[in-house]
Amino acid sequence: MSSGDLSDLQIEENSKQLPRLNLLAMLRLGLLQIGLGMMSVLVFGVLNRVLIRELGVPATLATIILALTLFVAPARVWFGQMSDTKPLWGYHRTGYIWIGAASLAIIAFIAVQVMWQVGGSLKAEGWTSQTYGWTALLAFLFALYGVAVSACSTPFATLLVDVSDEDNRSQLVGIDWSMLMTGIIIGAITIGVLLKKLTLNAPIEDLQAAINRLFSIVPAIVFGLAMLATWGMEKKYSRYTLRSTLVNREEKITLDRAWRILTASRQTQVFFTFLVMMTLGLFIQDAVLETYGGDVFKMQVGETASLNAFWGTGTLFGLLAAGFLLAPRIGKRNTTKVGCVSVVVSLIWVVLSGFTHNSTFLLIALLLFGLCSGVATTGALSLMLDLTAAETAGTFIGAWGLAQAMARGVATIAGGALLDVGKKLFPDLVLAYGLVFVVQGLAMLLAVWYLGRVNVTEFRTNAREAIASVLQNELD
Fold first, then answer.
1. Residues 379, 384, 389: CA angle, nearest 5 degrees
2. Percent of the chain topping pLDDT 90
3. Are 58 and 404 in contact, with CB atoms under 8 Å apart?
4. What DSSP state is assigned to residue 88?
5. Which of these, 195, 204, 257, 422, could form a disulfide with 302 (CB 3.0-4.6 Å)?
6. Are 162 and 93 in contact (CB under 8 A)?
7. How far apart are the two ends of the chain, measured CA to CA in Å?
8. What angle do CA 188, 60, 432 make, to 5 degrees?
9. Phi, psi at residue 91, to the nearest 5°?
10. Could you give the 3-state DSSP secondary structure of residue 472?
11. Which pTM value belongs to this model?
12. Mean predicted confidence (pLDDT) in 131-146
């Protein structure tokens, strides 16, 4: 037996001496994900609509501002590495989580105040230097908000690895993912209740008061959930110090390294392209969905925020159905294909519901869209794990994650740009929004085409050699 094997056995033995996570502890950790889910609805389910519909900011510009929260995803790499090497207050992960949660709560409230300045300046003076100045400040704050989310979420994801063992990690991740979706549902319902009194075209003063109140209450709750979720958990359960000898170069992700890993062989390139197309097929509508509800279905601000509850509920059921029923029976690739094709069908329903102007049809369509999205996501994530070389798992998961975050940023901007183009091409708002959903469906069909060219056997045969060559060149 080699010294490395002895070291691994020793680490495993020492880990067994620490208390194991029970179900209650797993649920407690998931409270942070509930908070992050609530914040995502607050930003992408309320501010997107207010910027575009109520304040009159062009959809392309509004979605660029929103997408900045995603384009700063590389900051996750830095925070992950910082939490590895520079503990705060004696903790590797918890200190960063607390700072991130406090920062995102404060920055979100400040960003909303700047947003009102953008709207006021735009209404009073049009696009003057002052308006551009406020808009630039708003964009900066949204980027800063994305950095704060990275400071919170990446160390938290790493904490989940630290406190779990091989045999209970999948259970923890499943609970964690489900509670994120639960947070989106709870956030959507909460926002709908808090904004219920707002009418469709409420005076800007009423809208401002209601949104300010919302951004005072929910971020404070999210910070409280972050504290409750993590207080004492790292000290009691973390195995990081025992495993720190295993931390190596392969876990340090950089943009350059991620790109070279993702393009190391034909199969990594094919799956990378599939992942980007699928992300576009799932999220192009994300930043304009609430304005669709307002413009076409005449839904109030609170009602359009509640659209996320239907989408989130469908996604949650889709994740569970795919994981427990579909994938074990028809396989990961077929599950992914069924999900992707079904997403296209659901998007057709979303467009057709616009011609009825009946919000009930839209809600049913979004429930179906969420269900199909959950199936596609489960299949794709399972397939991704098959296309992850075990010896470079940290690098691969980080690379796939960065690719997905950047693609979602592109999807957000694409949705806004397509809506602006649609409004210029078509006098009918349903057709204008329809352009967004049609392009989204085409992206998903392209994803299905690339999925047909994914070959796990070829990956296992050829890709590892190519990846090893990339890593060896780095060492040289």
1. 150
2. 34
3. no
4. B
5. 195
6. yes
7. 29
8. 80
9. -120, 135
10. helix
11. 0.79
12. 94
